[in-house]
Design goal:
By secondary structure, the chain is an alpha/beta fold. It has 9 helices and 10 strands. Bound molecules: adenosine-5'-triphosphate and magnesium ion.
Length: 268
């Protein structure tokens, strides 16, 4: 029985990961992982390669069903709900490997992310009814606003695959924002970015939080993570090794040992 059966979630808890386990054949990707994410915070998940970070994201977003345990988002179980339904409920994500519609324009990629918030959907928006037209105009206005927010408005009509890689990451974030999320999961958003872009990313993440959106971040760039996170969960071989403030994590001997034992030498 979970503690949740006895007491309600504190109001500010947006997401609860409750004893989640998931294995693939003989690999235990997640092993009894539990933590809460409070609304309005930036919560990061770090850990060496293969620690289970992406698997955790896949479980939270409904892409995978865990073997054991449960995920509660706004006090409702995620398990058994479809990915698109969860997007509509306010959970959006970006991927470790950028996943855009390469041949579509930058603007169209944002509109695709937006279609969950329109009545007829972007692809279906070909009717002649006035509310469809009005919705299209509004979707475009909002998409341009989002492009301005992520710094890509001047490239609205470029093919997205022609953008430099780092900019594609910003576009992917813009597309996720198009779904009006309350919880945004970003899987290694700084991967492949140069130092200037990483700084811009940090600034963007702060501005996203400033809009009242809660962020759950998987990231290997330690200076970014340590600089912007309220709390950090450390995964190691599928288990939660530690959780705490950046300061606590940086001075945690077990965490340092886990990083030294891995092929990552990026831990500060
Ligand atoms: N679909 C899958 N099928 C089989 N094994 C998988 C699958 N997804 C993940 N795994 C395995 O589960 C473990 C955790 O993988 P995961 O991708 O969650 O790690 P990660 O922490 O995101 O690593 P990285 O930092 O390299 O992205 C790894 O051993 C991986 O090989
Ligand atoms: Mg991963």
């Amino acid at each position: 029985m979970s503690v949740l059966d006895e007491k309600p979630l504190p109001l500010q808890t947006l997401l609860r990961v409750d004893s989640v386990s998931m294995s693939f054949g003989g690999i235990q990707a997640l092993n009894e992982v539990s933590f809460d994410v409070k609304a309005g915070t930036i919560h990061s998940v770090i850990g060496p390669n293969g620690a289970g970070k992406t698997t955790l994201f896949n479980v939270i977003t409904g892409a995978y069903v865990p073997d054991r345990g449960r995920i509660l988002y706004e006090e409702q179980e995620v398990q058994g709900r479809k990915v698109h339904e969860l997007v509509r409920q306010g959970i959006a994500r970006t991927f470790q490997n950028v996943e855009l519609f390469g041949s579509m324009s930058v603007l169209e990629n944002i509109l695709v992310g937006r279609h969950v918030r329109t009545r007829c959907g972007f692809l279906g928006a070909m009717g002649r009814w006035s509310w469809v037209k009005k919705e299209e105009v509004e979707a475009k206005r909002r998409a341009l606003e989002l492009l301005e927010f992520v710094g890509l408005v001047d490239f609205a009509h470029h093919r997205s695959e022609d953008l430099p890689f780092g900019w594609q990451r910003f576009l992917e974030i813009g597309r996720a924002l198009g779904a009006d999320p309350r919880l945004l999961l970003l899987d290694e958003p700084a991967s492949g970015l140069n130092a200037v872009e990483t700084q811009r990313l940090g600034d963007l993440l702060e501005r996203i939080r400033g809009q009242g959106i809660t962020l759950l971040l998987v990231e290997h760039d330690m200076s970014l993570t340590m600089g912007i996170s309220d709390l950090i969960v450390v995964l190691h071989q599928g288990r939660k090794l530690a959780e705490g403030t950046p300061k606590e994590i940086q001075s945690n001997d077990e965490v340092i040992a886990a990083y030294l034992g891995s092929d990552r030498e990026s831990f500060p």
